[in-house]
Design brief:
The chain has about 60 residues and is mostly helical. It contains two helices and no strands. The longest helix is centred in the middle third of the chain and has 46 residues, at about 15-60. The radius of gyration is 28 Å and the shape is rod-shaped.
Length: about 60
């Protein structure tokens, strides 16, 4: 019985897996921030490209 009690006490004090969980949370947060940034950046690039193509199309229609 004493060995079982010692096992549970040692298990409660063991912190080996804690670092892995912390690193996983950091990676998840960085990944989420990266996905958000890429989505916003892609929307801005699409808007810029659309504006440029509309401007070039209007130049072609108002030619001499």
């Amino acid at each position: 019985m004493h060995a079982l009690k010692k096992f549970w006490i040692d298990l409660a004090k063991d912190e080996q897996g804690q670092d892995l969980v912390e690193y996983a949370l950091i990676v998840a947060a960085v990944g989420l921030a990266l996905i958000t940034t890429v989505n916003q950046l892609s929307a801005a690039i699409v808007s810029l490209y659309s504006s440029m193509t509309q401007g070039l199309a209007s130049i072609g229609t108002t030619g001499q």
